[in-house]
């Protein structure tokens, strides 16, 4: 964790008087409206997507499951592109606005295809050799095109909304910092509330009114969010793009490779510094030197050749500028070091997503063939897609209890404003996720044994509830970790890495399901004839191994030090 020692009044020196009133709490409704609509759209469809693919487009269950996870993976991969555009060229505001417009087009196309019958295969006809005809190639093409636009739109919204919202509270002062960390809880709470609305109201409309209305509602919401987000433009605090972060990382790597034969024998304080060229990427403070990954320090060794290459004509405020492909500053070297140190923690989050992905595929299929009546005398049946309601409720309850009870209680012992470290928060989430997967397998064994007299669907509530609690710990901890430990100028990129882990988890799920389906008969359309629990056992075992790996990574993780004033290094390691 990094803590600044700046006085709150110093923030006023960094911005003009006309900027003082910008940002803060008043911008949150505009920003959250965009995130709520995006989640209402994607969850309103993905929570029940397997039903649409199997019942409307007549896809086999395994193909529908992989289509769903591939969409989720792609929608979580595109944030890297959106983050790059925001950090390097057009800024977060315009990235969010443009991406929302693209998302709106994709959702409109999807709604149209679900409304007009010519975009779907004919209804199944009983009593024939092939009662159900799968969607044609062109019908699937319309579906995939719509999903692609939605994935591209999500790529601009997801990495930027988090960083854009957090930067509305600034960097200076304990009060502002406290609001920044609470923002992550607010963000996830609003996101969870919109997901809750999606898996109840929207899914109910899809199952009982029609897919045209079920997709039209989030489409209209997306249009409203675009208007509201743009309307808040005069009030936003906006950071200027600092140039391509990937170019800076490449420059450090190339400079270190060029000087690989040099030895780092000098004192760290003698490594190259240049406040002028680092000014735009270190507004909150410069990164201090760390002894880890010392090979990269060679990029900051100032040689005679570097001195001769600095031409008087290439100066900023009379400070000569070097060829950055030959010489980098300590701050830029530490930017690359920070990302490298974050990589093992990032990788640990992949299997948590792999486990959670089953809740929208096979767990939904389990719910479909269980007793979904609320009570024996009730005729109302819970829509399968609405089972994720219990995940959402658990997540919202966990976030509320965490913010109101756990943080104040643990703060007495840790002295941390956020209560517990984000690394500990993530670890708790990993353990809960493994437990949820284990319970899912046990419930499936019992469900199949009682298939003649179907179990109540409420037997699935414990696994859904634990997955919701796990997400409240893991995902918010992940967001805090990336925002805090990423270099200041790469925070959109860091949020993109968060979504990249979700993408990787979705693709690992696709690969795992594909391998199991290919080499076993565990995953068949009739779950009563399969052995779904074996898939859950495999994922549980992988998660246990992953938890041990994560504990080691967290134990030896080095936190970035931030130099905020008079070369003072501030960096507190959270154990």
Automatic annotation (TrEMBL):
GO terms for biological process: oligopeptide transport. Pfam families: PTR2. The chain crosses the membrane at residues 93-111, 143-166, 186-205, 211-233, 342-362, 382-402, 422-443, 463-483, 495-514, 534-557. One of its GO terms (molecular function) is transmembrane transporter activity. Signal peptide: none annotated. SUPFAM superfamilies: MFS general substrate transporter. It is found in: Membrane. It is a multi-pass membrane protein. One of its GO terms (cellular component) is membrane. Keywords: Membrane, Transmembrane, Transmembrane helix. PANTHER family: OLIGOPEPTIDE TRANSPORTER-RELATED. Belongs to the major facilitator superfamily. Proton-dependent oligopeptide transporter (POT/PTR) (TC 2.A.17) family. This is Uncharacterized protein. It comes from Dendrobium nobile. The lineage of its organism: Eukaryota, Viridiplantae, Streptophyta, Embryophyta, Tracheophyta.
